[in-house]
Design goal:
- Helix content is 25%, strand content 39%.
- By secondary structure, it is of the alpha+beta class.
- The chain has 2 domains: 121 residues, no CATH class; 153 residues, Jelly Rolls, CATH 2.60.120.
- The strands form 5 sheets. Strands 9, 10, 13, 14, 16, 17 and 20 form a 7-stranded mixed beta sheet that branches. Strands 3, 4, 5, 6 and 7 form a 5-stranded antiparallel beta sheet that branches. Strands 8, 15, 18, 19 and 21 form a 5-stranded antiparallel beta sheet that branches.
- It is elongated.
C-alpha cells in the first residue's frame, strides 16, 4: 500500500515536474517571442530613424536644386547672355559637366560664380553646383542628344547636390529665351537716305539698287523688273546682343512676284556687313509665300549681336505686277 502510495506520489511528483517543465518551456517561448517582438520593434524603429534621416536629407537636397533652378531662371530672363556666355557674359563660355558654377544673391540680383558652394543643414554638409550645356535641335525643332543644329536660344542646365556619405541628386532643365521684342521699319521716303545709326524707324534707308519707288511711305518697283533697298544700321540697344528670330513684312504680293530678304548682324557699327540668307551665305534669301508671314531666321548666323541691317529685294511677276511693302518687322529676343 505504501509502495502504491509512493508510486502514486511518484506519479504526482512526475506530473508536477512535467507541469513545471511545461511552464518553464512556455516561459522560455514567451521570452523568445518577446525577444523577437522587441527585436522587431527595435529594428523597425531603427529603420524608421534611418528612413527619416534619408527623407530629411533628400528634401534638403531637392530644395537646394529648386532654389538654384529659380536663380538660373531669373538670370536667363533678366540677361540671357549671362547664362549663354557664363559666368561673365563674355563668349566663348565655359560649358560642360567639368565647369561648375553656383549663384550668389547680391543687391537684389543673382550672380553666377565659378566653383561649388557648401551649405550645412542640421549638421550635414551639402555641396552643390550647376553646369550648362548647349542644345541641338533637328529639322523638326526637336531636341537631340548630339546631331542637328545648335539652338542658341536654349540651354540645358544641370544642378548637382552631394553630401556624406556618397549621396547625390542630379536634376536637369531646359532654359529658353522667353523675352521677345521687335523692330518695325516703315514710312520710307526717297529724301531720307542716311548712313547714321538708328534705334527706331524714321523712314531712312542706306541705299537702293534698281527701280525702287516710294509710294505713300511704302516701297515698290517703278518698272516690271527687280530692285533692292538696303537699310541703315539699327541698334537694338542691348549691349550683350540679342537672338534674331524672324522677319515679317506687310503689304501686297501678286502671284508670281517675290519679296526676299538677307540679314546682316554685328556687335560693331563699323563692321564689314555680310548679308546672309538661311544657309549662312549670300546666295540664298529669306522668303515667305505671302505678306504677314513669319520667316524664321537661322539663329547660328545672328546670335548675340547688337546691331543689324537688312536688304529687301523685290521682283515683279511675269505679268508685270509688282509687290508693295509697307512695313518690315524684325523679331528678336534679348
Amino acid at each position: 500500500m505504501k509502495g502504491i502510495l509512493m508510486h502514486d506520489n511518484d506519479k504526482v511528483g512526475d506530473a508536477h515536474y512535467r507541469e513545471r517543465g511545461q511552464m518553464l518551456a512556455e516561459i522560455l517561448v514567451a521570452v523568445l517571442l518577446a525577444g523577437i517582438i522587441i527585436g522587431g520593434i527595435s529594428a523597425t524603429m531603427g529603420t524608421s530613424v534611418v528612413t527619416g534621416t534619408k527623407v530629411r536629407e533628400m528634401t534638403t537636397a531637392v530644395g537646394l536644386i529648386q532654389d538654384t533652378m529659380e536663380g538660373v531662371k531669373a538670370v536667363a530672363e533678366s540677361n540671357w547672355i549671362l547664362l549663354y556666355c557664363l559666368p561673365s557674359g563674355t563668349c566663348p563660355a565655359n560649358k560642360g559637366s567639368s565647369n561648375h558654377f553656383y549663384l550668389n544673391y547680391v543687391n537684389g540680383m543673382w550672380n553666377i560664380v565659378s566653383g561649388e558652394k557648401l551649405k550645412t543643414v542640421e549638421g550635414t554638409d551639402y555641396t552643390y553646383y550647376f553646369y550648362v550645356e548647349n542644345v541641338n535641335r533637328d529639322d523638326s525643332g526637336n531636341i537631340t542628344s548630339s546631331e542637328g543644329t545648335e539652338d542658341p536660344s536654349t540651354q540645358k542646365v544641370t544642378v548637382v547636390v552631394t553630401w556624406p556619405t556618397n549621396n547625390s541628386v542630379t536634376m536637369s532643365e531646359y532654359r529658353t529665351r522667353t523675352k521677345s521684342s521687335y523692330f518695325a521699319d516703315y514710312n520710307w521716303n526717297a529724301d531720307r537716305a542716311s548712313s547714321n545709326v538708328f534705334t527706331n524707324s524714321q523712314g531712312y534707308y542706306a541705299s537702293i539698287n534698281g527701280p525702287i519707288s516710294f509710294v505713300n511711305g511704302a516701297i515698290s518697283l517703278s518698272t516690271s523688273t527687280s530692285g533692292s533697298l538696303t537699310s541703315p544700321i539699327f541698334d537694338t540697344t542691348f549691349s550683350g546682343g540679342v537672338a534674331f528670330n524672324g522677319i515679317r513684312w506687310k503689304g501686297n504680293l501678286p502671284t508670281g512676284a517675290h519679296v526676299r530678304f538677307q540679314l546682316a548682324t554685328s556687335n560693331s557699327t563699323s563692321s564689314d556687313w555680310n548679308f546672309l540668307g538661311p544657309d549662312g551665305t549670300s546666295s540664298t534669301y529669306y522668303e515667305a509665300s505671302g505678306a504677314d508671314q513669319i520667316i524664321p531666321i537661322t539663329l547660328n548666323n545672328h546670335n548675340n549681336q547688337r546691331y543689324f541691317r537688312y536688304i529687301i529685294s523685290l521682283y515683279a511677276a511675269p505679268n508685270g505686277s509688282v509687290p508693295v511693302v509697307s512695313k518690315v518687322i524684325i523679331n528678336y529676343s534679348p
